[in-house]
Amino acid sequence: MLSVYLSGEIHTDWREQITEGASDLPIRFEGPVTDHAASDDCGVAILGAEDNPFWHDHKGAKVNAIRTRMGIEQADVVVVRFGEKYKQWNAAFDAGYAAALGKSLIVLHAPEHRHALKEVDGAALAVAETPEQVVQILRYVLTGKLPA
Domain 2-32+73-143 falls in which CATH fold? Predict the structure, then answer.
C-alpha cells in the first residue's frame, strides 16, 4: 500500500479528483484538515481562547503542524498543490520539509507559477499541471503502465 500525503491549497476539489482517479490503486491518502474554520480555530478550541490574533494563529499552526509533520514523515509520496487564489506559504514549507526528509515529491501548479516556484519545482521529482497527471504518475509508479 502506497502512502500519499496531499498538501497545499484547500479551496478547490483537486484532492477529490486525485483520490477518485486513483480509487482502483492500492493507495492510502492522507492530508491536512481541509475545513478552513476548524483548521484556523483548532488551537483555541482545544487549548483555550486567545485575545491576541497572533497567539490564536500560533496555537492553531502548532496543533496543525503535529498532523502535517506526521503525515509527511509517514508518506511514501508527497503531493503539494499551489492554487490560484492565495499564496500558499504553508505549501512551500511542506514541500521543503518533504524534500529535506528525502520524500518523493510531486508539485502541482498552473504553468504561470513556474517562475515563482522554480526552487520548489527543482526539488520535486515531478511537476504536474493537473490532478489527472498526478494520478497518471501514481498509476505508473505502481503498475509501470503508461496512460492509454
Answer: Rossmann fold (3.40.50)
